[in-house]
Protein backbone atom coordinates (compact mmCIF):
# COMPACT_ATOMS: atom_id res chain seq x y z
CA UNK A 1 0.00 0.00 0.00
CA UNK A 2 1.09 3.58 -0.64
CA UNK A 3 0.19 6.78 1.12
CA UNK A 4 0.23 9.17 -1.82
CA UNK A 5 -1.76 9.56 -5.05
CA UNK A 6 0.12 10.95 -8.06
CA UNK A 7 -1.76 13.37 -10.25
CA UNK A 8 -3.64 12.15 -13.28
CA UNK A 9 -3.84 8.38 -12.60
CA UNK A 10 -6.04 6.40 -14.95
CA UNK A 11 -7.54 2.99 -14.05
CA UNK A 12 -10.59 1.01 -15.04
CA UNK A 13 -12.30 1.20 -11.62
CA UNK A 14 -11.76 3.40 -8.58
CA UNK A 15 -13.00 2.03 -5.27
CA UNK A 16 -13.64 4.64 -2.59
CA UNK A 17 -13.11 3.13 0.85
CA UNK A 18 -10.99 0.22 2.10
CA UNK A 19 -13.42 -1.28 4.55
CA UNK A 20 -14.60 -4.82 3.92
CA UNK A 21 -16.99 -3.73 1.16
CA UNK A 22 -14.32 -1.84 -0.76
CA UNK A 23 -11.73 -4.57 -0.28
CA UNK A 24 -14.18 -7.24 -1.46
CA UNK A 25 -15.10 -5.21 -4.54
CA UNK A 26 -11.45 -4.62 -5.40
CA UNK A 27 -10.49 -8.27 -4.89
CA UNK A 28 -13.36 -9.48 -7.05
CA UNK A 29 -12.33 -7.09 -9.83
CA UNK A 30 -8.64 -7.96 -9.56
CA UNK A 31 -9.49 -11.67 -9.65
CA UNK A 32 -11.37 -10.89 -12.87
CA UNK A 33 -8.34 -9.13 -14.36
CA UNK A 34 -9.72 -5.61 -13.94
CA UNK A 35 -7.37 -2.70 -13.17
CA UNK A 36 -8.35 -1.20 -9.80
CA UNK A 37 -7.26 1.57 -7.46
CA UNK A 38 -8.63 1.79 -3.89
CA UNK A 39 -8.64 5.21 -2.23
CA UNK A 40 -8.90 5.16 1.55
CA UNK A 41 -9.27 8.35 3.58
CA UNK A 42 -7.81 7.04 6.83
CA UNK A 43 -4.39 5.59 7.64
CA UNK A 44 -5.59 1.98 7.80
CA UNK A 45 -7.88 -0.54 6.11
CA UNK A 46 -10.89 -2.19 7.73
CA UNK A 47 -13.34 0.71 8.03
CA UNK A 48 -15.69 0.05 10.93
CA UNK A 49 -13.60 -3.00 11.88
CA UNK A 50 -10.52 -2.02 13.87
CA UNK A 51 -8.34 -4.39 15.91
CA UNK A 52 -5.63 -3.12 18.24
CA UNK A 53 -2.82 -4.99 19.95
CA UNK A 54 -2.35 -3.48 23.40
CA UNK A 55 1.06 -3.14 25.07
CA UNK A 56 0.33 -6.38 26.93
CA UNK A 57 -0.06 -8.23 23.63
CA UNK A 58 -3.81 -8.64 24.03
CA UNK A 59 -5.80 -7.90 20.86
CA UNK A 60 -9.06 -5.98 21.27
CA UNK A 61 -11.66 -5.27 18.61
CA UNK A 62 -12.94 -1.71 18.71
CA UNK A 63 -15.45 -2.34 15.93
CA UNK A 64 -17.13 -5.37 14.37
CA UNK A 65 -15.69 -8.57 15.76
CA UNK A 66 -17.86 -11.68 15.48
CA UNK A 67 -18.66 -14.21 12.76
CA UNK A 68 -21.55 -16.68 12.71
CA UNK A 69 -21.95 -20.02 10.90
CA UNK A 70 -24.25 -18.63 8.19
CA UNK A 71 -21.91 -15.75 7.36
CA UNK A 72 -20.40 -17.74 4.51
CA UNK A 73 -18.59 -14.91 2.70
CA UNK A 74 -16.61 -13.77 5.72
CA UNK A 75 -15.78 -17.37 6.62
CA UNK A 76 -14.65 -18.01 3.03
CA UNK A 77 -12.39 -14.95 3.12
CA UNK A 78 -10.95 -16.06 6.46
CA UNK A 79 -10.25 -19.52 5.02
CA UNK A 80 -8.71 -18.07 1.85
CA UNK A 81 -6.22 -16.03 3.85
CA UNK A 82 -5.67 -18.41 6.76
CA UNK A 83 -7.24 -16.26 9.48
CA UNK A 84 -8.18 -18.55 12.36
CA UNK A 85 -11.27 -18.22 14.55
CA UNK A 86 -12.23 -19.55 17.97
CA UNK A 87 -15.54 -19.92 19.84
CA UNK A 88 -16.86 -16.96 21.81
CA UNK A 89 -16.76 -17.89 25.50
CA UNK A 90 -20.33 -18.91 26.28
CA UNK A 91 -19.95 -21.26 29.25
CA UNK A 92 -21.78 -20.63 32.51
CA UNK A 93 -24.45 -18.23 33.64
CA UNK A 94 -25.17 -14.90 31.98
CA UNK A 95 -26.31 -12.07 34.26
CA UNK A 96 -28.88 -9.31 33.99
CA UNK A 97 -28.80 -6.21 36.19
CA UNK A 98 -32.05 -4.32 36.78
CA UNK A 99 -32.61 -0.81 38.04
CA UNK A 100 -33.50 -2.13 41.51
CA UNK A 101 -30.01 -3.63 41.82
CA UNK A 102 -31.23 -7.20 41.42
CA UNK A 103 -28.69 -9.21 39.41
CA UNK A 104 -30.21 -12.44 38.06
CA UNK A 105 -28.42 -15.36 36.39
CA UNK A 106 -29.89 -16.73 33.16
CA UNK A 107 -29.27 -18.84 30.07
CA UNK A 108 -30.52 -17.99 26.58
CA UNK A 109 -32.82 -15.00 26.07
CA UNK A 110 -33.38 -14.41 29.80
CA UNK A 111 -34.32 -16.07 33.09
CA UNK A 112 -37.41 -18.24 32.64
CA UNK A 113 -39.19 -16.44 35.47
CA UNK A 114 -37.63 -13.04 34.79
CA UNK A 115 -39.76 -9.93 34.43
CA UNK A 116 -41.24 -9.64 30.96
CA UNK A 117 -39.51 -12.73 29.51
CA UNK A 118 -42.69 -14.50 28.40
CA UNK A 119 -44.03 -11.54 26.42
CA UNK A 120 -40.56 -10.77 25.09
CA UNK A 121 -40.37 -14.24 23.55
CA UNK A 122 -43.90 -13.91 22.15
CA UNK A 123 -43.00 -10.56 20.61
CA UNK A 124 -39.82 -11.86 18.96
CA UNK A 125 -41.75 -14.82 17.53
CA UNK A 126 -44.31 -12.40 16.08
CA UNK A 127 -41.50 -10.35 14.55
CA UNK A 128 -40.08 -13.48 12.91
CA UNK A 129 -43.47 -14.30 11.35
CA UNK A 130 -43.69 -10.83 9.83
CA UNK A 131 -40.05 -10.80 8.72
CA UNK A 132 -40.34 -13.90 6.53
CA UNK A 133 -42.72 -11.95 4.25
CA UNK A 134 -40.06 -9.33 3.41
CA UNK A 135 -38.65 -9.49 -0.12
CA UNK A 136 -34.91 -9.15 0.52
CA UNK A 137 -33.80 -8.64 -3.09
CA UNK A 138 -36.61 -6.20 -3.90
CA UNK A 139 -37.76 -4.75 -0.56
CA UNK A 140 -40.20 -2.39 -2.29
CA UNK A 141 -42.17 -5.41 -3.49
CA UNK A 142 -42.98 -6.40 0.10
CA UNK A 143 -46.77 -6.33 0.35
CA UNK A 144 -47.03 -4.33 3.58
CA UNK A 145 -44.00 -2.06 3.16
CA UNK A 146 -46.02 1.19 3.17
CA UNK A 147 -47.79 0.22 6.39
CA UNK A 148 -44.69 -1.02 8.18
CA UNK A 149 -42.39 1.79 7.04
CA UNK A 150 -44.89 4.33 8.38
CA UNK A 151 -44.72 3.01 11.94
CA UNK A 152 -41.81 3.30 14.32
CA UNK A 153 -40.59 0.29 16.23
CA UNK A 154 -41.44 2.15 19.44
CA UNK A 155 -45.09 2.64 18.47
CA UNK A 156 -45.29 -0.99 17.36
CA UNK A 157 -44.00 -2.19 20.74
CA UNK A 158 -46.33 0.19 22.59
CA UNK A 159 -49.27 -1.10 20.54
CA UNK A 160 -48.59 -4.82 20.70
CA UNK A 161 -46.69 -5.51 23.96
CA UNK A 162 -48.55 -4.86 27.22
CA UNK A 163 -45.80 -5.78 29.67
CA UNK A 164 -43.50 -2.83 30.42
CA UNK A 165 -40.58 -5.12 31.32
CA UNK A 166 -40.94 -6.97 28.02
CA UNK A 167 -40.78 -3.61 26.26
CA UNK A 168 -37.60 -2.81 28.18
CA UNK A 169 -36.07 -6.07 26.98
CA UNK A 170 -37.11 -5.35 23.42
CA UNK A 171 -35.75 -1.80 23.61
CA UNK A 172 -32.33 -3.08 24.73
CA UNK A 173 -32.37 -5.58 21.87
CA UNK A 174 -32.98 -2.76 19.39
CA UNK A 175 -30.28 -0.61 20.98
CA UNK A 176 -27.82 -3.51 20.90
CA UNK A 177 -28.32 -4.47 17.24
CA UNK A 178 -29.24 -1.18 15.53
CA UNK A 179 -27.45 1.18 17.99
CA UNK A 180 -30.45 3.52 17.97
CA UNK A 181 -33.59 3.89 20.03
CA UNK A 182 -36.82 2.13 18.95
CA UNK A 183 -38.29 5.53 18.07
CA UNK A 184 -35.60 6.10 15.44
CA UNK A 185 -36.32 3.30 12.96
CA UNK A 186 -39.37 1.93 11.22
CA UNK A 187 -40.95 -1.43 11.77
CA UNK A 188 -40.12 -2.26 8.16
CA UNK A 189 -36.39 -1.62 8.62
CA UNK A 190 -36.38 -3.85 11.69
CA UNK A 191 -38.21 -6.61 9.79
CA UNK A 192 -35.91 -6.29 6.76
CA UNK A 193 -32.84 -6.51 8.99
CA UNK A 194 -34.19 -9.52 10.88
CA UNK A 195 -35.04 -11.26 7.61
CA UNK A 196 -31.57 -10.54 6.21
CA UNK A 197 -30.02 -12.35 9.20
CA UNK A 198 -32.39 -15.32 9.08
CA UNK A 199 -34.35 -14.57 12.26
CA UNK A 200 -34.42 -12.54 15.46
CA UNK A 201 -32.40 -15.06 17.49
CA UNK A 202 -29.64 -15.01 14.86
CA UNK A 203 -29.03 -11.40 15.82
CA UNK A 204 -29.20 -11.91 19.57
CA UNK A 205 -27.68 -15.25 20.51
CA UNK A 206 -24.18 -16.70 20.52
CA UNK A 207 -23.96 -20.44 19.71
CA UNK A 208 -25.06 -21.02 16.13
CA UNK A 209 -25.77 -17.31 15.67
CA UNK A 210 -24.05 -14.02 14.83
CA UNK A 211 -21.84 -13.94 17.94
CA UNK A 212 -20.61 -17.55 17.71
CA UNK A 213 -16.91 -17.06 16.90
CA UNK A 214 -14.11 -14.49 17.06
CA UNK A 215 -10.86 -14.05 15.17
CA UNK A 216 -7.57 -15.04 16.80
CA UNK A 217 -5.82 -12.01 15.33
CA UNK A 218 -8.84 -9.72 15.64
CA UNK A 219 -11.57 -9.18 13.06
CA UNK A 220 -9.37 -6.75 11.12
CA UNK A 221 -6.93 -9.58 10.37
CA UNK A 222 -8.94 -10.69 7.34
CA UNK A 223 -9.08 -7.13 6.00
CA UNK A 224 -5.33 -6.78 6.47
CA UNK A 225 -4.77 -10.01 4.53
CA UNK A 226 -7.06 -8.82 1.74
CA UNK A 227 -5.14 -5.55 1.62
CA UNK A 228 -1.81 -7.38 1.43
CA UNK A 229 -3.13 -9.27 -1.59
CA UNK A 230 -4.08 -5.96 -3.24
CA UNK A 231 -0.75 -4.34 -2.34
CA UNK A 232 -0.01 -1.11 -4.20
CA UNK A 233 -3.58 -0.95 -5.49
CA UNK A 234 -4.55 0.61 -2.14
CA UNK A 235 -3.67 4.19 -1.28
CA UNK A 236 -4.16 5.32 2.30
CA UNK A 237 -4.56 8.88 3.61
CA UNK A 238 -6.33 9.82 0.38
CA UNK A 239 -9.82 11.20 1.10
CA UNK A 240 -12.09 11.75 -1.88
CA UNK A 241 -13.70 15.17 -2.08
CA UNK A 242 -15.48 15.20 -5.43
CA UNK A 243 -16.70 12.76 -8.09
CA UNK A 244 -17.44 14.09 -11.57
CA UNK A 245 -19.29 11.57 -13.72
CA UNK A 246 -20.68 11.33 -17.24
CA UNK A 247 -21.58 8.72 -19.83
CA UNK A 248 -17.91 8.59 -20.81
CA UNK A 249 -16.34 7.97 -17.40
CA UNK A 250 -15.58 9.42 -13.99
CA UNK A 251 -13.05 11.77 -12.45
CA UNK A 252 -12.35 11.26 -8.73
CA UNK A 253 -10.74 14.24 -7.01
CA UNK A 254 -8.53 13.98 -3.94
CA UNK A 255 -6.22 16.48 -2.32
CA UNK A 256 -3.37 14.55 -3.96
CA UNK A 257 -4.73 14.92 -7.46
CA UNK A 258 -7.43 13.43 -9.70
CA UNK A 259 -7.91 9.84 -10.78
CA UNK A 260 -9.73 9.01 -14.02
CA UNK A 261 -11.70 5.79 -14.44
CA UNK A 262 -14.45 4.05 -16.33
CA UNK A 263 -16.38 3.17 -13.15
CA UNK A 264 -16.33 4.04 -9.46
CA UNK A 265 -17.51 2.01 -6.49
CA UNK A 266 -18.48 4.13 -3.49
CA UNK A 267 -17.80 1.86 -0.54
CA UNK A 268 -17.18 4.55 2.04
CA UNK A 269 -19.16 4.65 5.26
CA UNK A 270 -22.55 6.25 4.55
CA UNK A 271 -21.54 8.93 7.01
CA UNK A 272 -18.55 9.74 4.80
CA UNK A 273 -20.22 9.11 1.42
CA UNK A 274 -22.89 11.72 2.08
CA UNK A 275 -20.11 14.29 2.44
CA UNK A 276 -18.65 13.66 -1.03
CA UNK A 277 -19.68 16.19 -3.71
CA UNK A 278 -20.99 14.76 -6.98
CA UNK A 279 -21.19 16.54 -10.36
CA UNK A 280 -23.77 16.37 -11.76
CA UNK A 281 -25.85 16.00 -8.61
CA UNK A 282 -26.98 12.48 -7.81
CA UNK A 283 -30.62 11.50 -8.45
CA UNK A 284 -32.93 12.82 -5.70
CA UNK A 285 -33.76 9.37 -4.32
CA UNK A 286 -30.10 8.51 -3.82
CA UNK A 287 -29.45 11.85 -2.16
CA UNK A 288 -32.47 11.49 0.10
CA UNK A 289 -31.48 7.94 1.00
CA UNK A 290 -28.05 9.07 2.16
CA UNK A 291 -29.27 12.24 3.85
CA UNK A 292 -31.99 10.44 5.80
CA UNK A 293 -29.97 7.38 6.86
CA UNK A 294 -27.93 8.54 9.86
CA UNK A 295 -25.24 6.38 11.39
CA UNK A 296 -25.96 4.64 14.67
CA UNK A 297 -24.38 5.64 17.97
CA UNK A 298 -22.23 3.17 19.85
CA UNK A 299 -19.13 3.08 22.00
CA UNK A 300 -17.11 0.00 22.94
CA UNK A 301 -15.11 -0.03 26.15
CA UNK A 302 -12.56 -2.74 27.00
CA UNK A 303 -11.30 -3.47 30.49
CA UNK A 304 -8.35 -5.88 30.81
CA UNK A 305 -7.53 -8.05 33.86
CA UNK A 306 -4.81 -10.54 34.73
CA UNK A 307 -7.29 -13.41 34.21
CA UNK A 308 -10.97 -13.94 33.38
CA UNK A 309 -11.86 -14.16 37.07
CA UNK A 310 -15.63 -14.35 36.43
CA UNK A 311 -15.19 -17.81 34.91
CA UNK A 312 -14.02 -19.07 38.32
CA UNK A 313 -17.51 -18.25 39.59
CA UNK A 314 -19.25 -20.11 36.78
CA UNK A 315 -20.09 -16.94 34.84
CA UNK A 316 -19.88 -16.46 31.08
CA UNK A 317 -18.98 -12.78 31.31
CA UNK A 318 -22.11 -11.90 29.34
CA UNK A 319 -24.51 -9.44 30.95
CA UNK A 320 -27.47 -7.26 30.04
CA UNK A 321 -28.19 -4.06 31.93
CA UNK A 322 -31.59 -2.39 32.35
CA UNK A 323 -32.50 0.92 33.93
CA UNK A 324 -30.55 4.17 33.85
CA UNK A 325 -27.02 2.83 33.60
CA UNK A 326 -25.03 3.77 30.51
CA UNK A 327 -23.76 0.27 29.80
CA UNK A 328 -26.24 -1.89 27.89
CA UNK A 329 -24.45 -5.17 27.24
CA UNK A 330 -21.20 -6.82 28.40
CA UNK A 331 -19.30 -9.72 26.80
CA UNK A 332 -16.24 -11.78 27.68
CA UNK A 333 -13.68 -10.64 25.09
CA UNK A 334 -10.70 -12.54 26.49
CA UNK A 335 -8.13 -14.15 24.18
CA UNK A 336 -8.70 -17.78 23.25
CA UNK A 337 -6.34 -19.30 25.83
CA UNK A 338 -7.60 -17.06 28.64
CA UNK A 339 -4.11 -15.79 29.44
CA UNK A 340 -5.78 -12.47 30.24
CA UNK A 341 -9.31 -11.46 31.08
CA UNK A 342 -11.10 -8.91 28.92
CA UNK A 343 -14.62 -7.53 29.29
CA UNK A 344 -16.13 -5.40 26.54
CA UNK A 345 -18.94 -3.04 27.50
CA UNK A 346 -21.30 -1.44 24.98
CA UNK A 347 -23.10 1.90 25.24
CA UNK A 348 -25.80 2.57 22.64
CA UNK A 349 -28.25 5.30 21.61
CA UNK A 350 -29.37 7.49 24.51
CA UNK A 351 -26.95 5.72 26.83
CA UNK A 352 -24.03 6.42 24.50
CA UNK A 353 -24.90 10.11 24.21
CA UNK A 354 -25.10 10.49 28.00
CA UNK A 355 -21.88 8.61 28.57
CA UNK A 356 -19.89 10.30 25.79
CA UNK A 357 -20.78 13.73 27.18
CA UNK A 358 -18.98 12.97 30.47
CA UNK A 359 -15.35 13.98 31.12
CA UNK A 360 -12.88 11.08 30.58
CA UNK A 361 -12.42 10.28 34.26
CA UNK A 362 -16.17 10.17 34.82
CA UNK A 363 -16.66 7.95 31.77
CA UNK A 364 -14.19 5.44 33.17
CA UNK A 365 -15.71 5.58 36.64
CA UNK A 366 -19.17 5.07 35.19
CA UNK A 367 -18.15 1.92 33.31
CA UNK A 368 -16.27 0.45 36.27
CA UNK A 369 -19.17 1.12 38.65
CA UNK A 370 -21.50 -0.91 36.44
CA UNK A 371 -18.99 -3.74 36.03
CA UNK A 372 -18.53 -3.77 39.79
CA UNK A 373 -22.28 -4.06 40.32
CA UNK A 374 -22.35 -7.05 37.97
CA UNK A 375 -19.09 -8.91 38.68
CA UNK A 376 -17.93 -7.57 42.04
CA UNK A 377 -15.08 -5.36 43.23
CA UNK A 378 -12.43 -7.18 41.21
CA UNK A 379 -13.98 -5.76 38.05
CA UNK A 380 -13.34 -2.19 39.21
CA UNK A 381 -9.54 -2.53 39.08
CA UNK A 382 -8.51 -3.35 35.50
CA UNK A 383 -4.91 -3.44 34.33
CA UNK A 384 -5.89 -1.54 31.19
CA UNK A 385 -8.87 0.45 29.97
CA UNK A 386 -9.65 1.51 26.38
CA UNK A 387 -12.67 3.14 24.78
CA UNK A 388 -13.79 3.81 21.22
CA UNK A 389 -16.64 6.21 20.46
CA UNK A 390 -17.71 5.60 16.86
CA UNK A 391 -19.73 8.81 16.40
CA UNK A 392 -16.45 10.67 16.96
CA UNK A 393 -14.60 8.66 14.33
CA UNK A 394 -13.55 11.07 11.59
CA UNK A 395 -14.41 8.77 8.69
CA UNK A 396 -17.08 6.41 10.03
CA UNK A 397 -19.22 9.09 11.72
CA UNK A 398 -20.93 6.37 13.78
CA UNK A 399 -21.66 2.66 13.87
CA UNK A 400 -22.47 -0.10 13.49
CA UNK A 401 -24.44 0.94 10.41
CA UNK A 402 -26.63 3.64 8.91
CA UNK A 403 -30.35 3.29 9.59
CA UNK A 404 -32.94 4.75 7.18
CA UNK A 405 -35.50 6.84 9.03
CA UNK A 406 -39.19 5.87 8.97
CA UNK A 407 -40.62 6.42 5.49
CA UNK A 408 -37.30 6.30 3.66
CA UNK A 409 -37.62 2.71 2.46
CA UNK A 410 -41.03 3.26 0.90
CA UNK A 411 -40.22 6.72 -0.49
CA UNK A 412 -36.70 6.21 -1.81
CA UNK A 413 -35.75 2.55 -1.53
CA UNK A 414 -36.62 1.51 -5.10
CA UNK A 415 -33.83 3.57 -6.72
CA UNK A 416 -32.03 5.13 -3.75
CA UNK A 417 -30.93 2.02 -1.87
CA UNK A 418 -28.25 0.54 -4.13
CA UNK A 419 -29.19 1.07 -7.80
CA UNK A 420 -26.17 2.30 -9.80
CA UNK A 421 -26.19 5.95 -10.86
CA UNK A 422 -24.71 5.57 -14.30
CA UNK A 423 -21.07 4.64 -13.75
CA UNK A 424 -21.32 5.06 -9.97
CA UNK A 425 -21.91 1.83 -8.05
CA UNK A 426 -22.77 1.51 -4.38
CA UNK A 427 -21.33 -0.92 -1.86
CA UNK A 428 -21.35 -1.11 1.91
CA UNK A 429 -23.02 -3.36 4.42
CA UNK A 430 -26.16 -1.21 4.32
CA UNK A 431 -26.70 -2.23 0.67
CA UNK A 432 -26.68 -5.99 1.35
CA UNK A 433 -29.71 -8.27 1.12
CA UNK A 434 -28.20 -10.90 3.42
CA UNK A 435 -26.56 -10.01 6.73
CA UNK A 436 -27.27 -6.33 6.22
CA UNK A 437 -25.22 -4.28 8.67
CA UNK A 438 -22.61 -7.02 9.23
CA UNK A 439 -19.13 -7.72 7.87
CA UNK A 440 -20.54 -10.59 5.82
CA UNK A 441 -23.05 -8.22 4.25
CA UNK A 442 -20.26 -5.74 3.49
CA UNK A 443 -18.34 -8.42 1.60
CA UNK A 444 -21.48 -9.45 -0.29
CA UNK A 445 -22.13 -5.83 -1.27
CA UNK A 446 -18.63 -5.37 -2.64
CA UNK A 447 -18.91 -8.55 -4.69
CA UNK A 448 -22.28 -7.41 -6.06
CA UNK A 449 -20.87 -4.01 -7.09
CA UNK A 450 -17.96 -5.76 -8.80
CA UNK A 451 -20.38 -8.02 -10.64
CA UNK A 452 -22.26 -4.96 -11.92
CA UNK A 453 -19.04 -3.55 -13.38
CA UNK A 454 -17.99 -6.88 -14.87
CA UNK A 455 -21.43 -7.29 -16.45
CA UNK A 456 -21.24 -3.77 -17.90
CA UNK A 457 -18.00 -4.68 -19.66
CA UNK A 458 -19.41 -7.90 -21.13
CA UNK A 459 -20.42 -7.49 -24.80
From TrEMBL:
Swiss-Prot/TrEMBL cofactor(s): FAD
Binding site for FAD: 40-41, 240, 430
InterPro entries according to UniProt: Amino_oxidase (IPR002937), FAD/NAD-bd_sf (IPR036188), Flavin_amine_oxidase (IPR001613), Flavin_MAO (IPR050703)
Stated name of the protein: Monoamine oxidase
MF-aspect GO terms: oxidoreductase activity
Residues that hold substrate according to the record: 346
Family indicated by similarity: Belongs to the flavin monoamine oxidase family.
Phylogenetic placement of the source organism: Bacteria, Bacillati, Actinomycetota, Actinomycetes, Mycobacteriales
Residues annotated as domain Amine oxidase: 21-454
Pfam families linked to this entry: Amino_oxidase (PF01593)
Alphabetic keyword roster: Oxidoreductase
Keyword Oxidoreductase applies: yes
Amino acid sequence: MTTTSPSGDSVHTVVIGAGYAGLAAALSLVDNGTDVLVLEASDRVGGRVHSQRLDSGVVVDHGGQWVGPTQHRLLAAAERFGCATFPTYDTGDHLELWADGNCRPFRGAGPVDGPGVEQYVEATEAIDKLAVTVDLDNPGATERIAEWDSETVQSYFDRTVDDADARRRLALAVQGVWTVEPRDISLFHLLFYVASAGGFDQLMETAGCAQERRFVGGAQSVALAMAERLGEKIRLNTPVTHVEHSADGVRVDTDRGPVYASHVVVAASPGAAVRIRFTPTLPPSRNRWMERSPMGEVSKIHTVYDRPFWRERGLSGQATVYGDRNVGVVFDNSPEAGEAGVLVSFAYGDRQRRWAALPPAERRADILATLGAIFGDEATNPLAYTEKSWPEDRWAHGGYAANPAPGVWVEHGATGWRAPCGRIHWAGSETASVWNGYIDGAIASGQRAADEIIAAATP
